[in-house]
Structures are given as structure tokens and as C-alpha cells.
Amino acid sequence: MNYQIELRHLLYFKILAEELHFRRAAERLFIAQPGLSRQIKQLEENYRVTLFERNKRNVALTEAGKYLFDEVKELFRHLDQIETQLQSLANGKISTLKLGFIGSAVQTILPQLLVTLKQKQPDIELALHELANEVQLDMLQKQELDFGFVRLSEAPMGLNSIPIYTEHFSLVLPNTHPVLQQDRLNLYALKDESFILFSKNYSHSYYDLVMSIFQDHQFTPKVTLRTVNALTIFNMVAQGLGVAIVPSSLKNGYHVNVTFLELDALAQRTTLSLVWNTQNRNPGIPFVLEIFASQT
Prior knowledge:
The relative contact order is 0.14. The chain has 296 residues and is of the alpha/beta class. The strands form four sheets. It has a five-stranded mixed sheet with strand order 4-3-5-12-6, with helices on both faces. Strands 10-7-11 form a three-stranded antiparallel sheet. It has helices at residues 7-19, 22-29, 33-47, 63-90, 103-106, 110-120, 133-141, 204-216, 230-238, 284-294; strands at 52-54, 59-61, 96-101, 125-130, 147-151, 159-167, 169-174, 194-198, 222-227, 244-247, 258-262, 270-277. It has three domains: 7-86, Arc Repressor Mutant, subunit A (Orthogonal Bundle); 92-165 and 272-294, 3-Layer(aba) Sandwich (D-Maltodextrin-Binding Protein, domain 2); 169-268, D-Maltodextrin-Binding Protein, domain 2.
């Protein structure tokens, strides 16, 4: 028998796939358990596949069920996005935008973008999330963010990026560090120091870029602490637990008892990029890209 699949069939499937328990799923859906079983059977007969393996004790997704579960989650995520955008438009807003960013973006380009957005579209709704690079990329691919401000060498497949701010690095030292008395800094003189760096979770490509600085100076740093938080790095340096290398823009906005030495003679530069999903149809995305295009 060939049933016409309706949205409720997919909703019932999604809830059962989450619960893997017919009684709990039926309770969440406010329907009787036999009714849920009937809807799932109709779905399986329509697609001519088995979606769940069942016995008296367990319910498990088949390979076909796992595939459908991933697709259904994406479908309902997109339906939620449609609802959000429709409500924004009904309330006179051009869009609702979800922006991810790393801490250094706050010290550079992000504040001016927010000012420009609000000037051009006062009713635009913005949701800001400070997140590590890798988390942003994952959320962008799932369209859980509309834009990300990240440091990366190359955008993953499906994402697009434009460079928006390039800067050099700075060495972060305790205020009483002996190297501050030298007329000329040689990084090799710090080969025995403990280094506190952003971890790979901050950005794999950024981490590799920083490590290339040490390779150029022919030593491997003794890294005693890795973190994704700039303030943690600065506080550890202030307490004499090590030294650090960070993007120079991070010297702005933090009131900590450390000294920044700009490493502007280094070949390495780090670039902050704006990243978005090319499949994301949020109407606010072209609007933001137009702002950046007008500033370049």
C-alpha cells in the first residue's frame, strides 16, 4: 500500500528516533502508542524499508533509519529557520542573524560591523556567540550560524570565506622579564621558556602557523599550557608561568599586567576571515556581504 507521506509522519519518526522507546515517544507526541506504531508502519511501507529494529526490550535505528534521521533533523532545522525569518519579516525586520566570533574579532572588525548593521537596518536582530574556530565551522556547516569570524588558512568544502583583517603577532611577557632589557629581541633566546599558547581547538591552521614561527627560529617550544581563552593566557603570563605569542589585536580590550612586544619583523601574519555557508538562504547574508564589499 502506498501512503501519502505527510509532515506528521516525519515528526513522529523524528521523536521516536530520539527516544528509541515507543511509550516515551507517544507521550511526547500526545498520541496513543498504537497510533504511533501505525504511522511508523505507514512510513516504512511507503519507503519500502525497515527504519527500526524492534524486540520486546529494545528499539534501534537501522542504517536506513539513521540516514532518514539525519535528513529529517535537517528538514526540521530548516523549517524552524523559515519560521524565524517569517516572524522577523512580519515584525518589520530584514532578518535575524546568528554570528559566531573569536575574542580577537571584538578588538578589530566586529564592533564596526555591528554599528553599520544597526545604522542601515535598525530593526535587524542579532545573536552573538563567542566560540572557538572549530566549533564555528561545525555550526556553519549545519547552518546553526549565519556567519563566523574565524582564523583559518582555507575554508572547508561548502563554506565560503573572505579575509577581512590581517595582522602580525605579539610576544606577551611578564612586566619584569629580562628580555625587556635587551635592545633587540631574538626569539631563540626564549627557547628554554615555558610557552602558553592557543590550543588546536582554537584553530588547527592558526596553531600550525604559530608553530612555524618557532620552526623558523630553529627550536621547539616547551608548551606548558594550551587554552582557547585569551584572558587565561594573559593571567598565566602575569603570574610568571610562561610567555605567549598572540595576534597583536588582543593587546586591546584587556587590562592585564603584562607587556606586549610586537613581532612585526616576522614573515608570519594571521588573518581574520568572515565565513558563511553557501547553501544558507538567510536574506540577511547578502546584506552583510554588501557591507563588506563597500568597505574594500
